[in-house]
Amino acid sequence: MLLGFNDSRPPEDSDVVVVGLGPVGATAALALALDGLRVTVFEAGLAGDGVLGESRASTFHPPTLEILDGLDVSAPLHEVGLVSDTYQYRDRTEGLVAHFDLAEIAGDTPFPYRLQSEQQNLVRIIRDRLAELPNVRLFENAHVRSAATDGEEAVVRVAGSADPEAPEVEYRARWAIAADGAHSPIRHALGIGFPGITYPEQFLVVSTSADFAELIPGIASVNYISDPREWLVLLRTPLHWRALFPIPPGEQDAADALDPAAIQRRLQEIAPRAEGYDIVHSRIYRVHQRVAERFRDGRVLLAGDAAHLNNPLGGMGMNSGIHDAAMAAEAILAAEAGDTALLDAYEETRRSVAHDYVRVVTHENRDMLREEDPAERRRRNDHLRRVSADPRLAREHLLRSSMLASRVSPDARIPA
Q: What are the alphabetically sorted keywords of the record (predicted)?
């Protein structure tokens, strides 16, 4: 049931409150609801709103597709997605360095590819499913201020606007999942630290309808292009090609970086195009590497960006958040059945994946693309060539880059 938040509406009982209807909160809500729990979802904006969808996550890795398939939403996501079964490492000077084919991991997953599809497609698909379920109430324009544990319940305080003076309504449930984003009011209210770093450079993301496959023969749908001066990521989405560039600290004026002439220059340096590039969307944002000190406080579980942030190089942020959601739901379902062991496993496992795997891999990706030392660049490129040419090494590399190395099983939905 889709509802507008009304602070005069008496609260109704629910088993779980999910805060945030991004891909993480949506996945958690659906997993819990399909198992019969009464779920209340609070979304501060409009449920399934596609605003800024062009600049958000668009890569779904194999283990994520396994989870979504178990929730019966993989098929409709494929209908609006683009299958990408190869990716490349390139060098601005040398051209193609290494080509990887995910067919090498066909024996490890039923989805040996990445699916490119803007995250809002998944949110809309799940939102429509949730709206049909009788055990789900989905509130729009509901601003959650805090969540805490009170005995055997989670207590969530909600207002009908972002105004700090707006009246609050108290909702109680047996559990709460905070998928309320990087600035998570719940994480702040619980006093959970969020240590880490903010990169000195900002990132510029640009979308264009120009087809780079026609401009650069043999290019893959996903490309990591190294260069000591200006590295970039170039990938194809169902509607556009997207380019991601670093904006060095000395070029921090967003107005200058977003100037159409400056964007044209950057795109023309990738591949000359006489008629120029149409710019569908552009945005600058800061990038963080942060992991919450705790992923659980009593009956409140943190998930997704509320629990961890990482740079987008490798497409692991949204995916690891969806893995959080699946395991959080499984832990709550197990606890409702009398087994609380998975609650502790959730905290330990998901924080370890965020800190020791996602944080490390994405930081390594950045370092590799921006390496300035010529000898080290040659060494890394030679290593990638050897790995891509050796089936065993290529498979190991693909298991790591596809996140299957931190696999979430489709049955138990916890690391296998």
A: Oxidoreductase
Record the pTM.
0.91
Does residue 313 form part of some domain? Answer: yes
**C-beta separation of 127 from 143 below 8 A:** no
Instruction: State the CB neighbour count (10 A cutoff) for residue 326.
Output: 28
Q: Is residue 249 part of a domain?
A: no
- Scan for tokens 């994480």, then name that residue: 187
- Residue 168 φ then ψ, to 5°: -110, 150
Q: What is the pLDDT of residues 147-190, one digit of tens each?
A: 999 999 999 999 988 888 888 899 999 999 999 999 999 999 99
The CATH number assigned to the domain holding 319 equals 3.50.50.60
For 38, 101, 119, 388, the CA distances from 402, given in Å and listed in that order, are 34, 11, 17, 15
Angle between the 317-336 and 62-70 helix axes, to the nearest 10 degrees? 40
Beta bridge pairs of residue 233: 224, 244
* DSSP one-letter code for 415: B
Cα separation, 397 vs 102, in Å, equals 10
Range of 360's domain? Answer: 2-82+114-194+289-364
Q: What is the pLDDT of residues 135-146, one digit of tens each?
A: 999 998 899 999
Strands 86-91 vs 222-226: parallel, antiparallel or unpaired: parallel
C-alpha torsion angle, residues 34, 135, 188, 284 (rounded to 10): 70
Tokens of 372: 């300035």
